[in-house]
User: Fold this.
Amino acid sequence: MLVAWKYRPRNTFIQRLDPRTRLIFLFCVIFGVSIPEIWDYRIVLPLFLVSLTLYLMARIAWKDVKRVWTYILILVVFIVGLNALLSARGGPSSVTNIVSPVIFTVPLKIPFTQLGWDIPVTVSKIWFSFNQMFRMLTMTLLAIPIPYTIDPNIYGTAFRQMGASDKVSFTMDLAFRFLPTFARDFSITMDAQRARGYELESMEGGIFSRIRRLAPLIIPVVMQSTVTGEEVIDAMDLRAFGTNRRTWLKDLKYAPRDYLILGLGIFIFVGCCVLRWGFGVGGYFVPDFFTNLFL
Amino acid sequence: MSTHPLVIENLTFKYRTRPENAIENISLELKQGELLLIAGASGCGKSTLARCINGLIPRSYRGERRGKVLLHGKDVADLQIAEVAQTVGSLLQDPERQIVASNVFNEVAFGPENLGLPRGEIVERVDQALKRLNIEYLRDRETFNLSGGEKQKVALAGVLTMNPSILLLDEPLASLDPASAHEALEVFRSLADEGKTIVLIEHRVEDAIAIKPDRLLYMEGGKIQYLGAIDNLPKEIDYTQVKLPATWVVQRVKELNQAAETPTPLAVEERGEPLVVFEDVDFRYDEELPFVLKDVNLKIYAGDLIAVLGPNGAGKSTLVKHAIGLLKPTSGRVLVEGKDTRKMSVAQIARALGYVFQSPTHMLYAPTVREELEFGPKNLKYDSAEISKFVNESLSSVNLEEFVEYPPLALSFGQQKRTTIAAVLAMRSKILVMDEPTAGQDFANYTHFMNALCQPSDGAQSILSANFAATLFITHDVDLAVTYANRALVFGDKRIIADGKPQDVLKDTELLLKYRIRPTSLLKLNLDLLPKTGKFLPAEALAAYAS
Assistant:
């Protein structure tokens, strides 16, 4: 189910930033960590702290984001964390190549057979899964506040002034509002079908019959979205969208604080690249203090 | 060449996907400042005509177009869409579908922004339009949170900023409560007086003639049946197709010397144990939000056919959602057949109470009408012999037998609506609850639909009395309460303001106006004739009593 969010003006440093600054900074961190493949906790941890500081500065009330964080934490811990722990894929090959003490093994068996694998969990894998989770959190901490703290009226302008075309920019603008609409339609349909005795909780049967049982929810919502989409197109045509180069009423201007944050973003991106490729620092290794914990 | 703002010559259009012409040989001329009312039942071609005028035909809809549509002497097909948009301003049926921006200022500025005008000029035009419609106070509001009437004014302001000389209004009253509809009409009149040429498409002729359109164009089957002055009750207009003032209908029925139809027998009043009870119900969505319901007390008995009236957004839907258990009271309790809804699942309540949502597109999903109808009874775990019996019976009740293997989504809107009723009928609930049963349907269709539900035919009972112990419907159409209900509730200020027989509740004009319900000509005529009739009757039946 989709999470509807609510923008509210707050008088915070974060919210006074230009939306472009926020987006560019987010991309600097994502690309800084992922392109040069930074796995060194001495870089990941400070970046995490920077993100956490910026997140806290946005002063979003916990109850507003509780549900989103629940989903994100489930995703990060169970999917990213467990996957990293068990398979150690999705990272550098050195995670599994390093000779590292085995702490315990997880026997994965197909039920009622002898087929399966014993998966050794090494110190290296544990360290890797921690690392992976912190990298993900560093990025999500920057991304989550965006819908809560950027005025929905200036998404389009922000993309336009970052160089996207009129059409792409307005598409982004609409897309951000399509989600709450979708969520609203979904809840109306859910109510309508429950009134006909439909219960999501009591689904029985195998995976395919379960998917079939979702049809009463999915089909009306998809139909509704398609119809809405067509109507939006007509409404935009009738008001001459796409015929001229568009004037965007709102004009965004960078303030000194924006240059500060943009500078920090570029510093992070360039710094990660230089450390990794120039000095060979930032790759994967297991620090001795961590290995010693298990010995 | 004529320099009238709008000239249509021998216009014929056929959609690529359909065999017959949607409109045929339409010709008309409109002068500056003229207000033309176009009326007709759905499928009469009025929306196609609108699309020809605003250029969506031939741009967005493919087909064969013959004849001419001239805007200030130039054919719409030869103009750029930007030029058309600055000549013809279109207001669509549902303002919610027209609004594309998230706040009012951006929404109103959207058109001029697209034209690439300088910022200063855009701001000036926006401020002018907001001022013209007296909605400056909405300038910084989010479009999402506006009321229906406010949304429509904002959509209209967005059209006015393009400085069009022609305004094309396609059923602009459809989603408004009666008081907002009346306000909107006054605005249209004053715009015409200022020199805009206005094409108003509306099947609620009764409401539209209040602002004295200069001419009326009545269409049937894609052709013009009547085009001319409106004051002399043109004979060409079929009173069963569009909503005319009750006095006109009475006069027409007398002229035609038709036998007055049998007055609707009101369901017999039965008292006894109430089926649904609201006890001191308060409700709010969240502790921080204001109450939506406060001290609501209501008992629904067998034999009730209740119309719930009240302004849009007053909480009528919130009220009835409590009866099916989709919402549970914050304090107080709701009992369905003596059991507290807090202790029952929605599915359990559904066995007693069937709820038909406003929009069929929110619930129809199955590949065939039969499967759609089987959905509810299967969920309630009826056995299969029962299910097929219930499905067949409910299909015949709503006259949909021939469509049993059709996909519901391919049916017309009215048929879809009947499918949703049948889907609830098949569940064999005792109580039927309908949210705006007539929304989205035109006059001819909803009259047909409501007659089929409420009126007995060939000596048999009506669908409602044969299948349900009690019925409750929400509406903002006073005439539905007058014609079909035997009990009327006025809901406003979070509580039930009035509850009783329609003739007792609806005679208090002051109260009605306070809750944005405008007395209609049918209500007035019924009140005048009440000493003779003793009860409310549909307009045709009143002919026998009117002098």
Observations:
- The beta strands of chain A are 102-109, 116-122.
- Chain A has a mean pLDDT of 86.
